[in-house]
Amino acid sequence: MKISKEEVLHVANLARLEIDDADVERFAGQIGTILDYVDTLKQVDTAGVAATSHAITLTNAFREDEETGHLDPQTALANAPEKDEGAFVVPKVI
C-alpha cells in the first residue's frame, strides 16, 4: 500500500513531530512496506483460532513476597563504584 508524502506529514503533524523532506520520503516507503505486510497478514485464515493475548503461554515468574533480612552496610556497599562514610557516592544531578 502506497502512502503519500501528505499522509506522512499529516501523521507527523498529529504526533507533533518535525521531520525534514528526506525523512518524509524514507518514512513513506517504510510505512508503505509495513502496510503491505499488514495486508499480507489479513490473508491468513484465522477461522477457528482462539483469540490470545500472547503468542506463548506465560506464567507468573515472580517469587512470593516474603519478608527477609536486610543487607549489612558492608555487603550493600561491596560492589559500589564509590562510597564514603558508609554511603553510596553518586554524581550530583542539580
From TrEMBL:
Signal peptide: none annotated. GO terms for molecular function: asparaginyl-tRNA synthase (glutamine-hydrolyzing) activity; ATP binding; glutaminyl-tRNA synthase (glutamine-hydrolyzing) activity; transferase activity. It catalyses: L-glutamyl-tRNA(Gln) + L-glutamine + ATP + H2O = L-glutaminyl-tRNA(Gln) + L-glutamate + ADP + phosphate + H(+); L-aspartyl-tRNA(Asn) + L-glutamine + ATP + H2O = L-asparaginyl-tRNA(Asn) + L-glutamate + ADP + phosphate + 2 H(+). Keywords: ATP-binding, Ligase, Nucleotide-binding, Protein biosynthesis, Transferase. Belongs to the GatC family. Allows the formation of correctly charged Asn-tRNA(Asn) or Gln-tRNA(Gln) through the transamidation of misacylated Asp-tRNA(Asn) or Glu-tRNA(Gln) in organisms which lack either or both of asparaginyl-tRNA or glutaminyl-tRNA synthetases. The reaction takes place in the presence of glutamine and ATP through an activated phospho-Asp-tRNA(Asn) or phospho-Glu-tRNA(Gln). Heterotrimer of A, B and C subunits. This is Aspartyl/glutamyl-tRNA(Asn/Gln) amidotransferase subunit C. It comes from Desulfosarcina ovata subsp. ovata. The lineage of its organism: Bacteria, Pseudomonadati, Thermodesulfobacteriota, Desulfobacteria, Desulfobacterales.
